[in-house]
Amino acid sequence: MLDLRPNCECCDKDLPPESTEAMICTFECTFCVACVRDRLHGACPNCGGNLVPRPIRPRAKLMKHPASMKRILRSGGCG
After folding, report:
1. Which domains does the chain have, with CATH numbers?
2. pLDDT in tens, 3-23
């Protein structure tokens, strides 16, 4: 089950579960579309993998499987 992390690890932008601006890698590192495009050039700075749009969990399923509240920021920022 995906964590659905609440923010971009680069700029700390809020990325709620229904956001279409959230991008993830296979390790669930989470970034916003703008950082992926402008700073990361499509590659995860943590693992080097590609970043793809994060799926949206249906609202009814969020009740049983809520999104993560833990904010993660990349130390040193994103280049």
Report:
1. 1-65 (3.30.40)
2. 999 999 999 999 999 999 999
Task: Report residue 47 as tokens.
Answer: 């693992």
Closest CA to 45 of 70, 69, 77: 77
HEC letters along 21-73: CEEECCCCCEEEHHHHHHHHCCECCCCCCECEECCCCCHHHHHHCCCCCCCCC
Distance between CA atoms of 41 and 50, rounded to whole angstroms? 9
What sign results for the dihedral spanned by CA atoms 12, 14, 15, 17?
A: positive
